[in-house]
Amino acid sequence: MTAVNLGLPRSSALPGGPGPRAGALPDAGDRPDHPGLVDRFGRVARDLRVSVTEKCSLRCTYCMPAEGLPAIPRDELLTASEIARLVGIGVRDLGVREVRFTGGEPLMRADLAEIIGLSAAAAPGVDLSITTNGIGLDHRIGALVEAGLTRVNVSLDTVDRAHFAELTRRDRLPAVLAGIRAAHDAGLSPLKLNAVMMRQTLADAPDLLGWAVDNGFLLRFIEQMPLDADHAWVRDNMVPAAELLEVLGNRFELTEAGRDDPSAPAEEWLVDGGPATVGIIASVTRSFCAACDRTRITAEGTVRSCLFGDDETDLRGLLRSGAPDAEIARWWRAAMWGKQKGHGIDSAAFAPPVRSMGAIGG
Fold first, then answer.
1. How far is 92 from 11, CA to CA, in rounded Å?
2. Residue 239 carries which DSSP code?
3. Could you report the per-residue pLDDT of 26-62, keeping only the tens digit for each?
4. How would CATH label the architecture of 11-19+35-360?
5. Can you say whether the dihedral through the CA atoms of 305, 137, 225, 253 is positive or negative?
């Protein structure tokens, strides 16, 4: 078995803390006196993504290697109370308006309901959602909703069982569909489905859209980004949004509807005149970096300002050294001030990040 290195991103860590290396506060000397998570390009991050684990029950080829990612030592993962404290700081002090828990697969955390419950208490009224593959969701949805879960996004790339097994390296489509149905029956709405556009499932895309429309789910297709652990992504092999729209257009009448929110990543199309829609997240060919409003916390407790930027700022060390909320907020603001302008995939100098999507969190 070949081990896959999670990588050691450049890190600003609390001197003497448990972070990957000692460092200093990120340079934010010219930052304006703004309470939120503003960056040098005028963007303000209000959407928080929190990865809670690197573990996953699937092995999607665009995300993880066949053997999975190396385990993060338990004492290096944020605890439920530490996650909730960061959520509270983000919402109360930094202007965060919605929080999504990701992985890996968040359902691999046995204490996910506790994470959601403590976060709901720390940030009353904020939207708390998860991005999940849905496996096991039918057994846990009641406890998650009771804890404060308000919405679910399920990753589903095809409804063809054989193609699903090939893409994910696991024959678990029935379990995923059971999870989707359970979330629907629990009243979580809107229920969104995320499908990564892959060459081997492109022919399945119309069937997936038809199934989503028939069941009242919101489907969003996502262009594959160079975030796979095997670093096998090649631009010439990816399915661009224009090609997908052509394939879907052979079966459905699609009418461009734009974006409801300028910072939303998905461009919407009416399906057969509406009201059903399909979203296209063209991360590569129609970059929306200029309107990005996301900030990320990794499972180890570092701030990652951009999916494609390897600079990370350690907040876990601050949490465990007894730093007050105001100090943690100051480091978080400084980290986001240094956010890069965009992913730079079109640049000749582009290099994929050290961490894969599974290790960063979606």
1. 25
2. -
3. 666 789 989 999 999 999 999 999 999 999 999 998 8
4. Alpha-Beta Barrel (3.20)
5. negative
pLDDT of residue 2: 32
Q: Which residue bears the tokens 């119309």?
A: 206
Q: Hunting for tokens 């599974």 — which residue is that?
A: 358
Residue 218 φ/ψ, nearest 5 degrees? -95, 115
Q: pTM to 2 decimals? A: 0.89
Dist CA 19 CA 2 (whole Å): 26
DSSP, collapsed to helix, strand or coil, labels residue 199 as helix
Sign of CA dihedral 339, 343, 346, 347: positive
| Residue where the block lists tokens 């998905």 | 266
Residue type, 96: V
| Amino acid identity for residue 149 in this structure | L
Cα torsion for 48, 53, 54, 57, to the nearest 10°?
A: -110
Indicate the SS3 state at residue 14. Answer: coil
In three-state secondary structure terms, 70 is coil
Angle 339-340-345 from CA coordinates, rounded to 5°: 140
- What are the extents of the domains in the chain? 11-19+35-360
Cβ-proximal residues to 86 (8 Å cutoff; 6+ apart), any chain: 50, 78, 297, 301, 315, 319, 328
- Can you give the pLDDT at residue 291? 87
Q: What is the pLDDT of residue 111?
A: 98
The answer to whether 135 and 176 are in contact (CB under 8 A) is: yes
Residues in the chain predicted with pLDDT less than 50, given as ranges, are: 1-11, 13-23
From CA 307, how far away is CA 222, in angstroms rounded?
A: 15
CA distance 241 to 124: 38
Quote the CA–CA distance of 111 and 222 in Å, as a whole number: 29
Q: Extract the tokens encoding 9.
A: 């991103």
- What is the reported pLDDT for 18? 39
Q: How many CB atoms lie within 10 A of CB 276?
A: 18
